[in-house]
Structure formats: structure tokens, C-alpha cells
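residues and backbone:
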Amino acid sequence: MNRTDELFFEMIVTYQRHAQAVRNAKYQETREMAEILLNMDISAMWFLTQRTPDTRSRLV
């Protein structure tokens, strides 16, 4: 596994933790902050796949 794969895996794990935080949020403000983090996670994963041609071809 190369470093790009490792980063992508780490982002997925982080995304899952943030998604769990959204589900468990007791207060609206906490839920909104967790949703912002989820959007950042998704953007980071998208950016990584766009900047690395070999990763993009493996995901398709």
C-alpha cells in the first residue's frame, strides 16, 4: 500500500468518526459543527482522488 492509499484510508476512518459524532450529537450546534467536519472530510477525499491519477483510475 502506498502513502496515497494510507491517507485515503485514514480519511475514511476519520469520516466514520465524524459521522458517528453527527448521529450522537445531543445539541444542534454540536451536530452542525460535526456536519461541517464531514463536508471537509468529503472535500479532502475528493481532492486526493483528483490530484492522484492512479488512485482515480482504481476507484472507478
The chain is about 90% helix and 0% strand. The chain has a mean pLDDT of 76. Helices lie at 3-24, 28-51, 53-59. The radius of gyration is 13 Å.
